[in-house]
Amino acid sequence: MSKFINHPFVKFIFVGLFNTVNYYIVYLLLLKTGLPFMVSHISGFLWAFIISYLLNCYYVYQVKLTLKTLLQFPLTQVVNMGLQSILLYLFVKVLHISATLAPFPALLITVPVTYVLSKKILTKEPS
C-alpha cells in the first residue's frame, strides 16, 4: 500500500486535491466579493500555481527548486490555464452550469494533461 501511496502520480493527485481546495477557496471568496467569475478564476489559479510548483518539487518529484524549473514550470500551466479557462467558459456560458460548480468537471479533464507535462519538465523523464 505504501508503494502505491508513494507513486508520483498518486502524490500528484494528492497535491492536486490540496491545490483544488486552495483554488476553490480563493475563487469563492473573490466571487463572493462581487468580482466576475473569470477574474476570480484567474486569481485562484495563480495562487494554486505557486503552491503547485513548491509541492511538486518538494513532495511529488523530490527535485531541487531551480531557476530553470521555476521558469519552465509555467509552461505546464499555460496549457492547464488555457484548457481550464475554455472549459470553464463553455460550462458556464454554453452549458449553463453554475459558476460555483463549473471548475470541477474542468479539473477532471486538465489534471492528467498537467501531470504529463509537469513530469517532463521537472524530472526530464518520460511520463
From TrEMBL:
<keyword id="KW-1133">Transmembrane helix</keyword>
<feature type="transmembrane region" description="Helical">
    <location>
        <begin position="12"/>
        <end position="30"/>
    </location>
</feature>
<dbReference type="GO" id="GO:0005886">
    <property type="term" value="C:plasma membrane"/>
</dbReference>
<comment type="similarity">
    <text>Belongs to the GtrA family.</text>
</comment>
<dbReference type="Pfam" id="PF04138">
    <property type="entry name" value="GtrA_DPMS_TM"/>
</dbReference>
<dbReference type="GO" id="GO:0000271">
    <property type="term" value="P:polysaccharide biosynthetic process"/>
</dbReference>
<protein>
    <submittedName>
        <fullName>GtrA family protein</fullName>
    </submittedName>
</protein>
<feature type="transmembrane region" description="Helical">
    <location>
        <begin position="42"/>
        <end position="61"/>
    </location>
</feature>
<feature type="transmembrane region" description="Helical">
    <location>
        <begin position="97"/>
        <end position="117"/>
    </location>
</feature>
<keyword id="KW-0812">Transmembrane</keyword>
<feature type="transmembrane region" description="Helical">
    <location>
        <begin position="73"/>
        <end position="91"/>
    </location>
</feature>
<dbReference type="InterPro" id="IPR051401">
    <property type="entry name" value="GtrA_CellWall_Glycosyl"/>
</dbReference>
<keyword id="KW-0472">Membrane</keyword>
<feature type="domain" description="GtrA/DPMS transmembrane">
    <location>
        <begin position="11"/>
        <end position="121"/>
    </location>
</feature>
<dbReference type="InterPro" id="IPR007267">
    <property type="entry name" value="GtrA_DPMS_TM"/>
</dbReference>
